[in-house]
Amino acid sequence: MSQLTFQEAVIQGISEEMERDERIFHLGQDIGPIYNGAMHSAKGLGAKFGPRRIIQTPISESAMVGAGIGAALAGRRPIVQLMFAEFLGLGLTPLACDAAAMWYKSDGTVSVPLVIRVLYGAGPHRGHSEDYQAWVASVPGIKVAMPSCPRDAKGLMKAALRDNNPVVFFEHMALYHGARQEVPEEDYVVPLGEAEIKSEGSDVTIVATALMAQQALKAAEQLRGEGISAEVVDPRSIVPMDIETVRRSVAKTRRLVVVSESWKTGDPLSDLTASIAEDLAGNAPLKIARVGLQNTPRPFAMPLARAAMPNVQTITEAVRRITESS
Amino acid sequence: MTPDANLLTSLYHLVAKGRVLESLLGKLPGFHPGVGEEGVVVGAFFGLKDSDYIAPHYRGALLAAHMRGADLRRLIAGVLGKVTSYSRGRVRGDICLPLQFNTLGMFSGVLGNPLNISTGIALAASLDGKQGVVVTSFGEGTSNLGAFHESLNLAACLALPIVYICQNNGYAMSTRTDYALKCASVADRAQGYGMPGIRVEGNDVVAMHQAVQSAVARARAGEGPTLIDAVTYRISGHYSADPNDYQPKDERASWLKKDPLLLLKARLQAQGVMTEAQLNEIEKAAEAEITQAIAEAQADPDPGLEVLGPDDLYSPVLERVA
Ligand SMILES: Cc1ncc(C[n+]2csc(CCOP(=O)(O)OP(=O)(O)O)c2C)c(N)n1
After folding, report:
1. Residue A191 covered by a domain
2. Would you give the distance in Å from CA A191 to the centre of its chain?
3. Closest CA relative to residue A26, chosen from A55, A6, A51, A3
4. pTM (2 decimals)?
5. Residue B320 in domain
6. What is the ipTM of this complex?
7. B-chain residues near A130 (CB < 8 A)
8. Which residue range forms the structural domain that includes residue A240?
9. Residue among B94, B107, B111 to mutate when testing ligand 1 (max atoms within 8 A of CB)
């Protein structure tokens, strides 16, 4: 075991997989040994693997994604870093219209083992916090990982690199150089589509990913002091979504709070909420609350940016809203 | 054409101001300063009509907006996210500019979008038929995006009144131009779209201004777009905290000798337009003005939560019909 940050864990996952599998290479802007990637997102990889496997590109996101798809079709297992999720749109048509459809439309003859890495999230960086996760999560055929801690980040990255499908891998900037965590040294994966109960409870289920999962844990801690027992479920990947684990939890608590750092409109977690309502409403009473980003473009000034997004307080308020009245 | 003393003096005021602005703002966290690139900015946007539009590259954007009449203190307040800024703190003021000065900035962090959008402003100018012109600038790194290639081709096809200026500072983050572009000059790309492509010493603000003005005249006359490769050098790091240690020492040293401010000062003295003492006085005045603007902006209040505007998502739909 070693104590790693989120960023170190992601890189360790990539590095181990690149050592194991010669077919993996990494495309990106400024990911070489001089700059080591935005926010050191490729630190040490260029020095270790050299320019034939850590390949710097011009600023050409559409070509980068398209080239990743092409190389994947030809037997490689590329990683393409788009620096920030804000730039996902530039690579969206080759990814969503073509790559996502290939396995199904080719009747299972062609697969696209491709990992797209993006930084995102309100945090230390000025701007570039948008995630646009709904764009990729709403198209069948793309998987989406959103880890909340170093151990999951490494395990999910390894799973993504062994997956035969396009995976968009979200790396949260506020978690990136944050808290360290014990990360196993032996080979392990965190499978895509497997939620984890981060904290057990019996009164209410809180579902959240990434930074919001960390906030939910803090909220749960606070609520415990008030005599409310919250269970925090982190889906870890939003596609595929582990509905079953959430359903089991909500069947027990009969109360669900869904927290998203993104807009509630079109949020993949809203689909989850609908599925849970579909499955569990109609038996005993079921209470649901959603917490998300204000439905406007993200404001810039720090006090506005903070107030527009969910935090421990808005999460605990939502929990109280649906626990008090019953 | 030898420039007259008035022109030289005006250019000098702006380049000197730009230098102070870029150096002082470069101390703020996360800022992308354009020290050494002021010649391109001033040369590109000096001498336009108020009714023309500009869409400047994000590096040097505040200087460009100020040249259009935007208030320095309010621009800097935008960098700091203060309520006194033009957006009341809603947008990143380091890259997004007040459009009321016919100055387009970046409403997101996505490079290349302003190239497409400013091409549309030129389309509207062309439809208006009032000889309006658009001048837009962008980095050489940005010229590797599809947005650049698609915009230039579209503008050429429709003979749009727009001047595309590549603020070519040799680097895109740490990526050298000679790694990411395999043509000798960004200007060579113009040939592929059937428009003139011109390479200019961007640090010679006079040459820069003259090249842009002839492209502007061409655009105004309805003869279509021009691409200008304005060659300069990024003296600053990519952003404030970038150690910038990847620039070779001798390359950097040779460019420091071609500093646009030094070149212009030498010229003004050689032509007897101003003495060294007069030049220094102007620099001092610029420093005082900008130091004060920064101090005022820093003392300005943060936006209150009333600026959040959760319901302020759409413009009133039918307002313009009445
Ligand atoms: C579409 C897009 N890709 C990547 C980035 C990240 N990024 C910000 S500045 C920059 C370098 C831009 O280089 P250039 O256009 O040459 O301008 P310079 O920074 O040198 O002034 C990059 C890659 C971005 N903002 N937008």
Report:
1. no
2. 13
3. A55
4. 0.97
5. no
6. 0.96
7. 108
8. 196-324
9. B111
